[in-house]
Amino acid sequence: MDNFNFYSPTEFVFGRDREDECGEYVKKYGGSKVLIHYGGGSAVKSGLLDRVKASLEKSGITWCELGGVKPNPRDALVYKGIELARAEGVDMMLAVGGGSVIDSAKAIAIGVPYKGDFWDFYRGKAPEKALPVGVVLTIAAAGSEGSGNSVITKEDGLIKKGTSSDLIRPKFSVMDPAVTQTLPAYQTACGATDIMAHVFERYFTNTKEVEITDRLCEAVLTTMVKETPRVIADPNNYDARANIMWAGMVAHNNIVGVGREQDWNSHNIEHQLSAVYDCAHGAGLAVIMPAWMEFVYKHNVMRFCQMATRVFGCAMDFEAPERTALAGIKAFRRFLHSIGMPINFTELGAKVEDIPLFIEKYEIGYGRSGGFVPLSSKDIAEIYRIAAKAEL
Ligand code: NZQ
Ligand code: ZN
Questions:
Q1: Together in a domain, 254 and 377
Q2: Do 56 and 88 belong to one domain?
Q3: Per the CB 3.0–4.6 Å rule, which of 82, 88, 221, 329 could disulfide with 293?
């Protein structure tokens, strides 16, 4: 196991109706005037935004607001948010939404105290200051409620990139599973896929002797395999929603990834799809992740056998472990299909002729690839090709 620091200072406020307490938490973490940031309207329609405002009012917190964050959030709204927050003298960001809203709020949070262009942070500069960020989460997916990451798409050239800093880890995250009951089944499934992908990016490692994190990863993955079909069948199943919501946080605050080298190539390869087609990140991952697995599994067949047997319950073929490894990948793809995810380019709406464009963007956005198996541009093109024609 490698040396590590684990720092996860977010206060998680979990359970039914906890959004009614968000004013208290804004106050606790020093906010007096917040910018409420939200998305395309689901939080307005469900009445969540009104409940959040009532709670702020009760605690004597004033606010201004900026809605309209789109999935795969863009830089244009971030610039608008920075201007608004400065003009209004905001001292805390309050994101009411999913990964897109939270990431946009984090970008505004580092942009407000910075004199230059906030995009510098997405080009690699480390932020030195940030407004504190509070969250009211509405979808279990990106894990941004517990992470120090933010992913933004630059409209000029459609470059999707991330930044990472402890300064943008939320001070508090309100997580009411009942709030996620209004999610369409497709978004629920996209979120579940992303959660599993966050674990797999950490599970496939070259670091030896990481039993504790292996077992934690497998706990999250088996939970997702069990609970996701339950919420697809019954969107109002509170307990299944609650398990998934917490799994989404555990999958990405890095507790399952410490002490080991991580991969993240599937994410970087997927980001080109959601940048170009504006598809849901989880849907893109459903197409890419099994294809990446098929491309790299020979690097460590036994690790894939471990996934196949422990997560998907495949029988171990001691004569031909490769068969077990491939059965596990197949089981993962079947699972994704069973929850309504696309499994190839046609189902996602992607085009094989765009592969050179994805490679070009990958090279601009990420340069070289490392991780479980370092990949050349040629390898990445092959993964896109496997993904394009995948079948059950
Ligand atoms: O905009 P509204 O109307 O709210 O609708 C949203 C959106 O259309 C809807 N939704 C959310 N909560 C809902 C709801 N609809 C009904 N009821 C609710 N309770 O769901 C749609 C998707 O929302 P979004 O925030 O885009 O989803 P997600 O949480 O998957 O975030 C995706 C973004 O996060 C990035 C992705 O790349 C993508 O841009 N990621 C961020 C990470 C991080 N910060 O750590 C890590 C991830 O790997 C990921 O890259
Ligand atoms: Zn993700």
A1: yes
A2: yes
A3: 329
CA dihedral 181, 184, 186, 189 (to 10 degrees): -10
Q: For residues 200 and 190, what is the distance between their CA atoms, to the nearest angstrom?
A: 15
Domain boundary among 178, 210, 230: 178
Q: What is the CATH number of the domain that holds 344?
A: 1.20.1090.10
**Distance between Cα 162 and ligand 1 center (Å):** 15
Atom of ligand 1 nearest to the CA of 282: 30
Q: How many domains does the chain have?
A: 2
**What residues have a C-beta under 5 A from ligand 2, the ion?**
194
> For 75-110, b where at least 16 C-beta lie within 10 A, e where not — what string?
bebbbebbebbeebebbbbbbbbbbbbbbbbbbbbb
Strands 92-97 and 149-154: unpaired
Ligand 2 center from residue 162 Cα (angstroms)? 11
Same domain assignment for residues 167 and 245? no
Ordered mean pLDDT values, 10 residues apiece, the chain (392 residues): 96 98 98 98 97 98 98 97 98 98 98 98 97 98 97 94 96 98 98 98 98 98 98 98 98 97 96 95 98 98 98 98 98 98 98 97 84 96 98 95
Interval between CA 249 and ligand 2 midpoint (Å): 12
Q: Which residues span the domain enclosing 139?
A: 11-178
pLDDT in the model for residue 365? 82
**Which value, in Å, is the radius of gyration of the alpha carbons in the chain?**
20
Q: How far is the CA of 86 from the centre of ligand 2 (A)?
A: 30
